[in-house]
Amino acid sequence: MASIPQASAAQFLTQLKYCKSLPTLPAVALQLIELAEDSTATLDEFAQRVSFDPALVGKLLRTANSSFYGFRRKVASLSEAIGLMGLNATISLSLSFSLRGLTSGQGGALDDTDYWSRSLLTALAARTIATELRERQPEDFLLAGLLQDIGVLAMASMLGDAYIALYKQGAGHAALLKQEVQSYGFDHAQAGAQLLKYWRLPERFHECVLRSHAATQAGGEGGAGIVQLSACVAAAAHIADAWIQGATDASFNAAYRSVRHYLGISPGQYQNIIAKMRDEMPEMEALFESELLDPGILQGIQDSARELLALNNLRLSRASAEASVQIQALEQRIATLETQTRRDALTGLYNRTYLQHQLELEFDKAMREQSPLCLAYIDVDRFKSINDTFGHATGDQVLVTVAQRILSAARPTDTVARYGGEEFIVLLPDTGLADARAVLEGMLSRVRDKPCLAGANADSHVTFSAGIAALVPGAASFGNPAALLEAADDALYRTKSNGRGQITVHEPDAQ
């Protein structure tokens, strides 16, 4: 791909204003922006301008009567809708509906499911966050969510097929921003902010486009309104990605860590946001005439929600024998599914597949947030002799006991998994070496201090050897999750060489 020299980045941003193929807002939308700048403009003037676009009038009336507002009586006229929703909300919604008709100017090359699904999901998430946090103008958040990636359309208009090919590589949003800077000297956040300046949108929107694309920009200095708007849109983008990635527990959990970083919301608030998005998604699709998710994914989520609701309802009527049978069947189904997909069949700990997935998530989070991450590799000492002496059934009993004791000493934020055979892995996020070692010492003490074999073998004690490796910003770094795991394995090997029953910390220079 041909690159534009860094020196021409400023020239490109200037040329945005004169690009004939650049996305432009409809005349009605531009007139609304002009009226919004006029402090003497009346509600009737706004209603008159909007009335020139019958399709826009229809969307505003449908929105006023939708679940977004839930007015007790049907809204029948445009003036009534503006009066009930408010002037600012009307302008933001009108601009939002106008944006949906924009293309990249390249034959609609980016006017497709990938671009608009993410933009509309971000917009819905931003509005839902705003309502959950009781922000005064949730429509501003919806509009800001739609505008976040408007620079993609601008860059596609100016740069054509080369940029479109880069965009469609699908390496992830953060990777796209880096690739844009490497290839062109600027990214679509800068391009989008400049475009919004040319459109004469209020400062809070083009500032939001810049700030919401990076953790260092979502907060920082500036007016409280801009900071909050940017943080909400940044969080909304992570929620949108979680939906696009299949709306799995893992994707939503990963998104929550970012949302918590930006907004500090509770798990309960986060669950409310996801549930409300699920309920309002069909309305959003109808209003913007777009399919936000594969229907199968959304149906599956809705079915799961109905199933959980049915389970809760059944629990209220346990006196009924029929209800009890259904409860047991549903609970067994859930337990079986979890066991098959995430749990080790013998010990009940997380399995290797889940561990590897969680390790990648925690590693990426630690790198992104510059927070510490420790990994402990545990191996039960002389386990082969236990199997040879007492048999494999007794060996399995030992593994179960050891697993339970390790888990009992773990913290709620730790991930404990059986890695294979007599090997266990413990992930300790946001944890430095000293604290990690203290947690492992507690685990070793619980395993060592009581016999692990029952009956005639009651005096049989078991120990484990462990190695700890730490990803510590500015002190110890690893190129990928596999390297961190290998470092812990090396430390474990040294423990075994030094007599077992101990804990060794990985030292980068020790081989």
UniProtKB/TrEMBL annotation:
Gene Ontology cellular component annotations, sorted alphabetically? plasma membrane
Record-linked CDD domains: GGDEF
Q: Show the GO MF annotations.
A: diguanylate cyclase activity
EC class, as a word, reads transferase
The protein's name in its UniProt record? diguanylate cyclase
Biological processes per GO annotation: cell adhesion involved in single-species biofilm formation; negative regulation of bacterial-type flagellum-dependent cell motility
| Record-annotated GGDEF domain positions | 371-508
EC numbers listed for it are: 2.7.7.65
Q: Which residues form the HDOD domain?
A: 22-215
Question: What is the organism field in this record?
Answer: Pusillimonas noertemannii
Query: By its UniProt entry, which PANTHER family does this protein fall under?
Result: DIGUANYLATE CYCLASE DGCM-RELATED, REGULATORY COMPONENTS OF SENSORY TRANSDUCTION SYSTEM
Give the matching PROSITE patterns. Answer: GGDEF, HDOD
Its catalytic activity? 2 GTP = 3',3'-c-di-GMP + 2 diphosphate
